[in-house]
């Protein structure tokens, strides 16, 4: 995992304040960092950003699997089956994104994490 020093400092700060290692740097964020996206760790990201990233990833994966599965079960279902599967995936993605954003915000508050802008400016 190739992290920038700033992101590494933020993750280490979260871990030092009681956030678990897998929570401070979740698999999705480690994947983003590995491909070169400098996304803020989730406890330092905005509510909207967390909802979009988590919900978007979940929605894309769920839509792909649900469309494939529904077409496997009823190949004659056609476009109507695909639209229904995508709508269900979108609703689930919104719910998942909002739930994850709420969880990250709550844990950051409970651990008294500073905001991204309040982190020491050693690497900025």
Descriptive report:
It is a single chain. By secondary structure, the protein is mainly α. Helices cover 68% and strands 0% of the residues. The protein has five helices and no strands. Helix 4 packs antiparallel against helix 5 (78-110). The protein has helices at 5-16, 21-24, 27-34, 47-73, 78-110. It has one domain.
Features:
5 helices; mainly alpha; 124 residues
Helix content: 55-70%
Listing every helix as H and every strand as E from the N terminus to the C terminus, the arrangement reads HHHHH
Radius of gyration: 18 Å
Ranges with pLDDT <50 over ≥5 residues? none
Number of strands: 0
Distance between the termini: 20 Å
> Hey, roughly how much beta strand do the residues contain?
under 5%
* Oligomer kind: single chain
Q: What sort of overall outline do the alpha carbons produce when their principal axes are compared? A: elongated
Count of folded domains = 1
Helix-strand layout with pairing:
Layout: H1 5-16, H2 21-24, H3 27-34, H4 47-73, H5 78-110
Helix pairs in contact: 4-5
Brief summary of the model shown:
68% of the residues lie in helices and 0% in strands. The protein is mainly alpha-helical. The longest helix has 33 residues.
């Amino acid at each position: 995992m190739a992290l920038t020093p700033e992101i590494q400092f933020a993750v280490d700060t979260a871990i030092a304040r009681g956030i678990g290692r897998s929570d401070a740097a979740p698999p999705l964020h480690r994947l983003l960092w590995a491909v070169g996206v400098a996304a803020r760790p989730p406890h330092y990201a905005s509510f909207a950003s967390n909802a979009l990233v988590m919900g978007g990833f979940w929605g894309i994966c769920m839509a792909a699997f649900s469309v494939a599965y529904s077409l496997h079960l009823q190949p004659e279902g056609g476009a109507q089956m695909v639209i229904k599967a995508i709508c269900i995936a979108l609703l689930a993605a919104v719910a998942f994104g909002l739930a994850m954003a709420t969880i990250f915000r709550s844990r950051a508050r409970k651990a008294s994490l500073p905001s991204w802008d309040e982190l020491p400016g050693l690497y900025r």
